[in-house]
Amino acid sequence: MKTENIVRKGITVCILLFLFTFCAGCATTSSPVENSASAEEANRLLNEAVQLNMEQNFEQSINKLTEAIRIYPSFQDAYVTRGGVYYILGKYSEALQDFNHAISFGPRNDVSAYTTAHTMIGRIYNIFSEYENAIESFNRALRISANLAETLNGRAEANYRLGRLPEALTDMHLAISLEPSRYIFFSNRGTIYYELGMPYRALEDFWTSLSLNPYNAPIATNAGKIAKDLGHYELSLSLYDHAIFVSPNFLPARLGRGRLFLVLAELADDINEQNELLEKAMVDFERSQ
Fold first, then answer.
1. Are 126 and 156 in contact (CB under 8 A)?
2. Cys-Cys crosslink for 201: which of 5, 186, 193, 275, Cβ 3.0 to 4.6 Å?
3. pLDDT digits 0-9 by tens, 205-259
């Protein structure tokens, strides 16, 4: 049994939260390095771009950031923020160019822009399946600051893809210790536990993840699969039911529940109960086509 690939599926959620947190920091704490009218105007444009990002008005945000960089060419936060917008839009070449430009200024007094740029480059390498390069980028960020939960999460993904499960697990332990409210971190660690042959630990982590974010059909489905494998059929059924309640057309949940109904039909003693379960299985299989 394979769990839904939540390590990769969770990237968008993690990165949006990660980037928006960085952007919010720009809006509230960023100040021009130079005491000049051009730097102040660039900072104003950055703050406007941050607000546009929150509204998911990304094209206008790029225009604001491009103008800020034109006015103030050494504005590191503007490069990182624009690179993040390009990343969200899937324009990875443009994003890499901006992140590398930000890194060229070196770590300044507030190192968050510098470490964010390295982390995002690592994320892009993960997308391109260049996992060794990704780890190198994550390590550069962690050498500046070891307490970067999203960076550790990204390095865990790279190690997971390379089959280095103990290293991935260690990174996820650290990420969770730093940010224990991030549901996707528990989900990612649960996937690693499952691959390590530790299904009860995996189920516990998926359950914790689901308690932090009850409206996530893939996580409920993964937990349902593991509960089924462990023979906890009532729990499995409740988890599949929850996944389908959250997302009625989520096919893996439909297929999983249909297969569970087949198992339950084989265990049923009463012929009427068997037929009822088989009919339910057929409904789920038909809905999943």
1. no
2. 193
3. 999 999 999 999 999 999 999 999 999 999 999 999 999 999 999 999 999 999 9
